[in-house]
What we know:
single chain; 69 residues; alpha+beta; 1 helix; 19% helix; globular; DUF397; DUF397 domain-containing protein
Amino acid sequence: MGQSPNDTPELVWRRSSASVTGECVEVAFGSQRVYLRDSNSPDGSILEFSRSDWVAFLAGVRRGEFDWP
């Protein structure tokens, strides 16, 4: 986690088009890392993931590993 990712000089943050209330996370893709932040606190902490961790996370989401029990 860090305040200013140095992977790329300028990150482009995106959020889901399904987010109508604005309460969501935003994602940005650097050259080697993926970054997540709270859309309500863009100057707050940023989570940082490797490309392989991000791919594994998405695969788990698609398989339903994180569905509410």
